[in-house]
Amino acid sequence: MKDALFTMNLDVPFNKKAYLVLSLSELETLKNNGTPCPDFQKKTQAKLTYNALVLLGSGLYKVEYIKY
Asked: What is the reported pTM?
């Protein structure tokens, strides 16, 4: 499943956090509900750490990226 669009629904419970681990190339294609990563960061509590580790706060996420 290389170079394929990967989609998943994430439900992070109230008062919890989750980490999404991606490669740098996958991070470049990351979208949440169709919103590219930079805009997604502004609208949510998502924080990028260590370049390819995305910290998500509680909420519902439909995450999409190209799987390399």
From this structure: 0.73
